[in-house]
Specification:
Layout: H1 9-24, E1 36-37, E2 40-47, E3 52-60, E4 62-64, E5 79-81, H2 82-103, E6 112-114, E7 124-126, E8 130-136, E9 147-148, E10 168-169, E11 174-175, E12 197-198, H3 211-221, E13 240-243, H4 250-259, E14 270-273, E15 290-291, E16 294-299, E17 306-309, E18 312-313, H5 318-325, H6 330-334, H7 342-355, H8 367-372, H9 375-384, H10 395-399
Parallel strand pairs: 1-15, 8-13, 13-14
Antiparallel strand pairs: 2-3, 2-8, 3-16, 4-5, 6-7, 9-10, 11-12, 16-17, 17-18
Length: 406
């Protein structure tokens, strides 16, 4: 039995769904209620001392830009799947907490603690009494979404009779070039399992890895990412993942998120299925309904949610974007981009460097170079790449991060 078996995961899901219902009434997604579907991801914190669950952040989204539309200047969010946006707005939350701790001597974060060792000045750690719960309304795209279909979603029911034709739940995520391609045979032989994949999509192929692959990586390197690893030197990992969909397989989730990582990895992840219907989840047998193109991002430090369309903050219409495309008016472009885009997060990172008096030690003003400065993160990622041999990390991916920041 889990040490944290006293956690009420149903309460965590209820808290997320209640907050979502309130947030969507503050934005334009309200007009789409019941007409379209979306995916939702959220991160909650469970206080071991108090037994309290706090919602830290959430995001919705199903879209991802194709390779031809990827932004090379950091103004546009390339991957707007719910899990990825949720992690990005969680990073913003961490940055805001560090900012307060650097700016206010009397500010005590409930989630981060500042190291007291003189040699580790301005280094922060996640509090050990706060356990992270990631709530998903769906299985992540890619390997975690490949599992055998059942005639009944109730796992307590007897299995289908042997004469029935087996089939698997299919993912639109495509195997990365270099691995064995999906055989696409009828029924259960349609997919290969354990493969690294890129995001699904019918248009221009994307360079973004599937959410299954990214989440497996986060379980080793942490949710804080490479930029914040300058301030946070111990990975911040999810302790629990809760999936609310009845279309789910624990074996597939563990295969995708745990078993593809190196043996003996120093983390424990528990996966839980709490079957609660999401009001805007993808309905079964309703293929005529389309995914909502609008994404939502929010964390507990934001008074209102922000909405994204095609990787930009909602309201950045085509006419404005076309007007700015040929200009170097960075201030105007920043006004149109999301708070979780690379440019905004890197600007916040520079603010943290200035407040920590670490700016004088930095010689470069390039986004990619800043990421490479986090040595422990870089070395850990380099070691992990020996297991993630098919992870896309070529010049096409690096070029979109090689932009100057001020």
């Amino acid at each position: 039995m889990s040490v944290f078996s006293n956690i009420d995961f149903n309460a965590a899901v209820d808290r997320v769904f209640d907050a979502y219902t309130k947030l969507i009434h503050l934005g334009s997604t309200k007009s789409k209620l019941g007409e379209q579907w979306t995916h939702l991801a959220a991160i909650c914190s469970f206080s071991v001392d108090r037994g309290e669950i706090t919602l830290l952040c959430m995001a919705t989204g199903t879209k991802c830009l194709g390779a031809k539309d990827i932004d090379h200047h950091g103004f546009r969010v390339n991957d707007s799947h719910a899990e990825v946006l949720c992690r990005r707005v969680f990073i913003k939350f961490l940055m805001d907490e560090i900012d307060k701790m650097l700016s206010q001597d009397d500010y005590e974060s409930a989630y981060l603690i500042k190291c007291t060792v003189p040699a580790m000045q301005n280094i922060f750690e996640w509090r050990s009494n706060q356990k992270l719960i990631m709530v998903l309304t769906h299985t992540p795209c890619g390997d975690a979404s490949i599992f055998q279909k059942l005639d009944s979603p109730n796992n307590d029911d007897p299995p289908p009779c042997k004469t029935s034709k087996k089939d698997i739940n299919r993912t639109g995520a495509r195997s990365v070039i270099g691995q064995a391609a999906d055989p696409c045979l009828p029924g259960a032989d349609y997919h290969c399992v354990g493969s690294f994949r890129t995001k699904p999509g019918r248009g221009d192929p994307t360079l973004s890895m599937s959410c299954s692959d990214k989440m497996a990586k986060w379980q080793i390197l942490g949710l804080q990412g490479s930029l914040l690893s300058h301030f946070i030197t111990t990975p911040i990992r999810a302790n629990f993942i809760v999936v609310t969909s009845e279309h789910y397989s624990e074996d597939s989730m563990k295969r995708a998120l745990c078993y593809r990582n190196p043996a003996g990895s120093d983390y424990k992840l528990e996966i839980v299925n709490v079957r609660v219907k999401f009001v805007h989840g993808k309905p079964v047998n309703r293929d005529n309904l389309r995914p909502n193109p609008i994404s939502l991002v929010w964390n507990k430090n934001m008074q209102r949610p922000e909405y994204l369309v095609n990787g930009y903050r909602q309201g950045a219409n085509i006419k404005k974007l076309s007007f700015l495309a040929g200009r170097s008016d960075e201030k105007a472009q920043l006004a149109l981009c999301s708070c979780v885009c690379r440019r905004k997060l890197s600007d916040k990172y520079l603010t943290l460097l200035e407040k920590s008096e670490e700016m004088t030690k930095i010689e470069s003003s390039n986004y990619l170079h800043f990421k490479m400065k986090a040595e422990w993160y870089r070395e850990k990622w380099r070691a992990l790449r020996t297991f993630y041999k098919y992870w896309i990390a070529d010049e096409r991916k690096l070029s979109v991060q090689n932009f100057p920041i001020k």
